[in-house]
Amino acid sequence: MSAAPINAVRPNAAPRPAESGLANRLSEGLRLPVIVAPMFLISSPELVIAAASSGVLGVYPVANARTLADLETALQSIVAKLATQGRADQWAINMIVHPTYTRFDAELELLERFRPRLVITALGGPQRALDRVHAFGGKVFSDVISMTHARKAIDAGADGLVLIASGAGGHTGSYSPFAFVDEVRRFWSGPLVLGGAISNARSIRAALTLGADFAYMGTRFIGAPETLVSDGYREMLVRAGLEDIVMTKAITGVTANWLRESLEAANFDFSKVDVAGKVDFSDIMGDAKAWKRIWGAGQGVSNVTAVESVQQIVDALVRDYAQLDALDAHLAAWPRTA
Ligand SMILES: Cc1cc2nc3c(=O)[nH]c(=O)nc-3n(C[C@H](O)[C@H](O)[C@H](O)COP(=O)(O)O)c2cc1C
After folding, report:
1. Which of 19, 53, 118, 217 would suit a FRET pair with 162, their CA atoms being 20 to 30 Å apart?
2. Is ligand 1 within 6 A of the CB of residue 138?
3. What is the pLDDT of residues 188-205, one digit of tens each?
């Protein structure tokens, strides 16, 4: 008899039941099941507002506000603007929960006043945020790159998962999305977001086919005028293709995808591409941090072919999604009778 696989899909653990209908409720008012992913030094309040106005969901990474006063101003502007559009709830927050990130408690205190309906935690388990976000009625999704962390997040009480598969911009996972969604769906029926090189309509549809509820899209939106990036970054994205993306732990200590040209411009020593840097998020706003000169992007970068506004990008995705009928015919061709 062969031994049971070491990592069998928790044969002894009853899955925690997911809140019924949560993914549907979060997708109300959206034109596509797209979340504009949070991006350090890139996402602005304007990006989050433009995402909602265009019919998708934007996420503000609280670390992008240099001070707590800036954070309060950012949240006020998002809430005020969206309230005028009758979309007061259509925004979400991203928090770094890594133990080295020291501003966490103060940020959470502010969020208790603004009450985002969704908080997405990154760089650690969701425990630090769960009770307090639940207390004001918010939901917590945990961003994960491994099966172990996916299980732990659900066990801890997360309301949903954001699976970062291979090819993602910034900190990336390494699993194939096929395998990752499939194995997570064996124990989790609740909200599932999939990220990693999803940058066109066909990929959004593929994410849903795999079993995800939402596509998490970062790279496709970096170049929009609503972001905080320089024109040089925008132009570099337009020039870049798959082979211009370099994966390394050298910059932040965590595996991430970067634009080769920006690494070259920063005189990065490519012989160190396999050497891990130090993980430390205690001073990510500091001027010395490499992030400012070394620019992230994912493997879906070739879909950035021009500088387009969020509205233009979303309109194009909606139009392309509606034109996937040819794909339907392709799918309907199978199975064939032999
Ligand atoms: C430059 C850059 C910065 C990022 N910063 C963050 C961040 O601050 N917090 C976070 O949770 N994810 C961050 N991400 C990851 C995105 O939220 C998301 O997982 C990723 O963009 C999805 O893959 P894609 O870029 O291929 O669409 C960043 C991604 C990029 C490209």
Report:
1. 53
2. no
3. 999 999 999 999 999 999
Q: Give the 3-state secondary structure of the chain.
A: CCCCCCCCCCCCCCCCCCCCCHHHHHHCCCCCCEEECCCCCCCCHHHHHHHHHHCCEEEEEHHHCCCHHHHHHHHHHHHHHHHHCCCCCCEEEEEECCCCCCCHHHHHHHHHHHCCCEEEEECCCCHHHHHHHHHCCCEEEEEECCHHHHHHHHHHCCCEEEEECCCCCEECCCCCHHHHHHHHHCCCCCCEEEECCCCCHHHHHHHHHHCCCEEEECHHHHCCCCCCCCHHHHHHHHHCCHHHEEEECCCCCCCEEEEHHHHHHCCCCHHHCCCCCCCCCCCCCCCCCHHHCCCECCHHHHHCCCCCCHHHHHHHHHHHHHCCHHHHHHHHCCCCCC
pLDDT mean across residues, the chain: 92
Q: Is 221 in the pocket of ligand 1 (CB under 6 A)?
A: no
Atom of ligand 1 nearest to the CA of 162: 19
* Minimum-distance ligand 1 atom for the alpha carbon of 199: 27
The yes/no answer on whether domain 32-228+301-331 falls in CATH 3.20.20.70 is yes
Closest approach atom of ligand 1 to CA 38: 17
Q: Ligand 1 center to residue 338 CA distance, Å? A: 45
pLDDT along the chain (338 residues), means of 10: 49 69 96 98 98 98 96 98 96 94 94 97 94 97 97 97 98 97 97 98 97 98 98 98 97 93 95 82 59 92 98 98 90 89
